[in-house]
Design brief:
Layout (H helix, E strand, L loop, with lengths): L4 H8 L5 H29 L4 H26 L4 H30 L3 H50 L1
Helix pairs in contact: 2-5, 3-4, 4-5
Length: 164
């Protein structure tokens, strides 16, 4: 799930109500929950797949993740640089990190001996676990940012009412 053009336009709107912003955020969190549920179901079902099918599924997931990362780059270019610069920097570091992991994984696949295969499996398992922890932290941060945005909107509305 990435920021849509409509979401970017919403950032530029003035005086969006806190209620409207919270509704939009709730919908985005629901989309995220659906995405996580689908990933969980697919991961559970992957246990029964043969190696070639699992590789095809992994390739498709990698392509989707790369496409999503590209979409994030595109969306970040459409919003105020000051607003998105911190997340853009984090996103760039994440892309560099995942590129390194993927290169290491590709290199490890080329080494077919048991010792290298075991090390690759352990490293891949650790990276998967770390990615899940990172996603959980991102969700916690998103929730905080949603509440903080609602508070800021109410504060702005109150200040405008006093001034006007």
């Amino acid at each position: 799930m990435v920021r849509s053009n409509r979401d970017s336009a919403c950032l530029k709107e003035k005086n969006v109500s806190a209620s409207d912003q919270l509704e939009k955020s709730s919908n985005q969190l629901q989309d995220l929950a659906t995405q996580a549920s689908t990933a969980e179901t697919n991961a559970r079902e992957a246990k029964a797949k043969k190696k070639s099918d699992l590789q095809a599924q992994a390739d498709a997931a990698r392509a989707k993740a790369e496409h999503t990362a590209d979409d994030i780059d595109s969306a970040a270019n459409q919003v105020d640089d000051e607003i998105s610069s911190g997340f853009a920097e984090l996103h760039n570091r994440w892309k560099e990190h995942t590129a390194k992991i993927r290169k290491n994984a590709d290199d490890a696949k080329a080494n077919a001996d048991a010792k290298h295969a075991e090390k690759h499996a352990e490293r891949a398992e650790a990276e998967a676990e770390d990615a899940i922890y990172f996603a959980a932290a991102a969700i916690d941060e998103a929730y905080y940012q949603i509440l903080n945005a609602a508070y800021a909107r109410l504060d702005a509305d109150e200040a405008a009412a006093k001034a006007g």
